[in-house]
Specification:
The complex is a heterodimer of chains A (177) and B (167). Chain A has 177 residues and is an all-alpha fold. Chain A is 71% helix and 0% strand. In chain B, α1 packs across α3. The radius of gyration of chain B is 49 Å and the shape is elongated. Classes of the chains: A mainly alpha (177), B mainly alpha (167). At the A-B interface, α2, α3, α5, α6 and α8 of A face α1, α3 and α4 of B.
Chain lengths: 177, 167
């Protein structure tokens, strides 16, 4: 963590709104993409990301270690996504319209994104979350174990199973696809 | 050929294996085209996942919306900080202190009244015991009268019950 980021966290923890705005600017992509990959809906992901930052602002004074900010924030988003999915269980199906067309840079990438997103939605929530934390967010297995509050061995096996299943889905070898 | 190491390949790719496991996978990969293919596919998959989401844009004006939401007043339950609770407790203590000072004359009057009633009762008891001790056989007389009254009452009650049985 660079010194500037540490200072933003330190100041935001003491109620400095400007410093917190800087943090939102830095982490908005990470938080939004996490929510989007998890709930597969642009609007809902935006709401969850906003709620996560609001919650983070008011809970920040309770954060013991400034260096743990990133994983702490991820935990907040993760829990909010979990609550959201619990509420909307069985209501959602994969909806192509949910994807933001303006972010497609090429036909190839657009096709690729669709298939990856569809494949992700076919995984269980805990396997999808493992993929998000590791392959989208880039957390280490140890950090994931702390965020998810599970043993390291479980993280290892979840990622292994999640990737195998996703590969199977993308290649058209899924049980229901 | 040794058994396949497919279950270790994900962690191998993420550099999350220990030294012995890495050695085991390295050795196996040299001799196993199937596991090499699997590793290549996993690597491609990982890159694809990352690139699929790295291009997802955050909505325009997101930071401003978050900050505007924070500016809004929070619900009462969230506003109650420890400081506010202490401030309220101090105000309550202050009000109680002022009230007790204002009510001091009433409180002392009440206390005086209670003391008077207690003392009066005590003196009355002392007076009765004094009278009893001064009149000879007073206690015996009182006991005899009381006993007689009880006996008469019991006899009357028995008689009354007996008459009712025959009617």
């Amino acid at each position: 963590m660079d010194e500037e980021l540490f200072q933003f966290i330190y100041k935001a923890k003491r109620g400095d709104r400007q410093a917190f705005a800087e943090l939102v600017g830095r982490y908005k992509g990470t938080v939004f993409r996490h929510a989007f990959a998890r709930v597969n809906d642009h609007m809902e992901a935006e709401d969850i990301a906003q709620e996560a930052f609001t919650k983070a602002f008011y809970s920040l004074p309770k954060l013991d270690n400034e260096y743990a900010f990133s994983s702490w924030l991820t935990k907040i988003v993760s829990n909010l996504c979990y609550d959201h999915l619990k509420k909307t269980k069985n209501k959602k199906t994969v909806d192509v319209e949910d994807y933001p067309l303006e972010s497609k840079t090429s036909m190839e990438q657009a096709d690729l994104k669709l298939s990856i997103a569809e494949g992700l939605q076919k995984l269980s929530d805990e396997h999808r979350e493992s993929i998000i934390l590791r392959d989208i967010q880039g957390f280490s297995y140890e950090e994931m174990a702390k965020i998810l509050n599970i043993p390291l061995g479980t993280v290892k096996s979840r990622i292994n199973i999640a990737r195998k299943q996703l590969k199977q889905e993308l290649l058209g070898g899924g049980e229901d696809g | 050929m040794a058994e396949h190491v497919k279950d270790l390949l994900s962690a191998y790719l993420d550099e999350e294996l220990n030294k012995n496991e890495v050695q085991k996978v390295d050795q196996h990969l040299k001799a196993c085209p199937a596991c090499r293919k699997e590793l290549k596919e996993l690597n491609l998959l990982r890159d694809r996942i990352f690139s699929a989401y790295s291009s997802v844009d955050v909505p325009v004006g997101f930071v401003d919306q978050v900050m505007a939401g924070i500016e809004k007043p929070q619900p009462v339950s969230e506003k109650f900080s420890v400081f506010r609770k202490w401030a309220i407790a101090l105000v309550v203590v202050f009000i109680l202190a002022v009230l007790s000072m204002q009510l001091a004359p009433f409180i002392s009057f009440g206390a005086a009244m209670v003391t008077f009633v207690f003392n009066f009762g005590y003196e009355m008891l002392r007076f009765i015991s004094f009278i009893i001790s001064k009149i000879p056989y007073m206690l015996g007389l009182v006991c005899a009268v009381t006993g007689s009254l009880i006996m008469i009452s019991v006899w009357s009650l028995k008689r009354l019950l007996g008459m009712q049985m025959f009617t």
